Amino acid sequence: MDYYFLGVKRMRLYSSNASGYSRKVRIVAIELGLDARLERIDQSPRDNTTGFFAVSPLARIPVLLTDEGYALYDSPVICEYLNTLAGGSLIPATGVARWNALRRQALGDGILDNGLPLRGELMRRPAMLSAEVVARHREAIERALTLADAEADAYPTSTPDIGTIAIGCAVGWLDFRMPDFGWRANRPQLAAWLAELGQRPSFAATRPE
Amino acid sequence: MDYYFLGVKRMRLYSSNASGYSRKVRIVAIELGLDARLERIDQSPRDNTTGFFAVSPLARIPVLLTDEGYALYDSPVICEYLNTLAGGSLIPATGVARWNALRRQALGDGILDNGLPLRGELMRRPAMLSAEVVARHREAIERALTLADAEADAYPTSTPDIGTIAIGCAVGWLDFRMPDFGWRANRPQLAAWLAELGQRPSFAATRPE
Prior knowledge:
Two copies of one chain form a homodimer.
Chain A: E1 3-5, E2 8-15, H1 20-31, E3 38-42, H2 52-55, E4 63-65, E5 71-72, H3 75-85, H4 95-122, H5 131-151, H6 162-177, H7 188-197, H8 201-204
Parallel strand pairs in A: 2-3
Antiparallel strand pairs in A: 1-2, 2-4, 4-5
Helix pairs in contact in A: 1-3, 1-6, 4-5, 4-6, 5-7
């Protein structure tokens, strides 16, 4: 299962521009200088017409087919694999820096974990919509954003890590999928931080449309 | 934020016996010989009466308050922290063994990620229940279980790792919360493997009731 392009062996990444988890992996690959190694397959997670579920039984994206030909998921595992492959430092190797970066990744991914079912709930017919489910997901996102805002002074934009990349992708997804969420109103630090982070080539090249 | 018990410094684990993710962390701690280091707080993820959301803004369990006094989540991050603290080998350090173990953890956790909203959906009033949502989650779980069954010959019970522990906790949760799921019918290898794994003291001591 080797893929070559212009003589370079490539891994296959099943992803979508609309997926915040996919964007995180793409940004990680760009920051690590691995983007040219990825053959990107635009994949809707629920579309099995090309046999995607054989690669991703949980019907999720992103999935990476590695150099060795096996499928990797979920996105934190793919990001660590790429960071190791490149000898990168997007995930600190040891100590408090590592746990803090991984904890922030879980915070960012957790915003998406709540945002996706929130959006799904809001798309239901009114008679089938649960206000309790909407409130639960929305409140989780609000609290996570408030923590991110409080921490944002400590988030560098010049040297992103897996934690800040995940948070950047989560709020970028909110802007894309739920533009009326209004998260900036009481979170000026996080808003200013995201505006600067969005200038990075890796973020600019992966903005969802 | 140090906790002592019989002179031993303790970390605080917010968890619940009913949570498959929490059980994974508890089993990891037992297998690593760290269980006595954990002060366990029985915590419902939606209960903020004691201020839990300040520790866990996403309202999730498990959360670990570490020796250094900071909060760690989600469960894969906690498991890696404990494995590092103990110098353990539940998460292989490098190579294909590492990626395969982490990928299996994502497969097991992904069963829970689908099982929880599936159960939530099935508890709705019939008029508010979406057959499409039920089918989507159920099919994802069925495919993940079928992959686990196909792989089960390669799952050791004598030396569990983070991947097989996660899968054991996921199917254990199904047995606990969705006893009529009927996953054993066409998956004899996975069923036999789980029966043997369940004999381990770490699994027996954490069985949900």
